[in-house]
Amino acid sequence: MTQVVPFCDVSINAEWSDWQHYPNGRPNPIYGEEVIKYGATGLMFGFITLASNGEACWAAQPTMALDWAVPLANELIKGGKRVGVSFGGAANSDISSKFTIEELEQTYNKVIELYSATFLDFDLENGLYNETNICTALKTVSAKNPNVTISFTLPVLPSGLTTTGMGVVNKAKENNLTFTVNGMAMDYYDPSYKDKMGDAAIEAATSIKNQLKQVYPSESDSALFRRVAITPMIGLNDDLSLFTIDDASKVANFCATNSLSFLSHWDLNRDNPSSFSYVDLQTSSNPDQKSSGDYTVAMVKC
Description:
This protein is of the alpha/beta class. Helices cover 35% and strands 21% of the residues.
């Protein structure tokens, strides 16, 4: 069974009234409760970014320091679930754009320790990062933490990674890292995939596997698939295509059959029903979704 590790924007719907964490708040504990209830493997926390004061923080907010999301991690671990932490994201600068290699090493090691993280992810999609420094720092961090899965979350089309994405892959290979390539299977802006988003995600994962064959020519297809993960955007995408619950089941079956590294989705915050005609931060905008968690449960069942 493939690991199911949804992303979660931990800054959304944060709990501000908890007196123990006032005034800086904490992530909403509902996300930990949902992961346990739905039976997912764990949760990928997003995103650690660069604050205006030059420090590492959550969501570019200096008041949300590096340890801000620890209460949610503790609840997940208590419930037998795994924790992943993702750096970067679409909206803000990654810390690698300013930090030295030594500072990156210290931060990555500290995050692994603070969160007992078993996944360390790098969502690199806006150019505001330094992949050379990331990969150089990870060489030391991986040696110290061999049981932590390193993943690079990269934009992907059904035809595969972009040239920029392949540049990240090659840089990671140059540094002898063991890593997973996680394709963001979403927002293609291609009408031919509007009603076939599940098929598109499967094509994207297969294309990544084929691209990795160029990097690891001696590896079998089954070994290459184990280096691949896929992250569709559930419900309504920004291009107004719709990733359905049936799509979720189809992709999950593919991942299980081919033993992909993990299956994620963007994101747990949105795994709730609504009939909105626009992309909402806390619902799927899929009128056919009946209950909260339908997407995650569909993935876990396969």
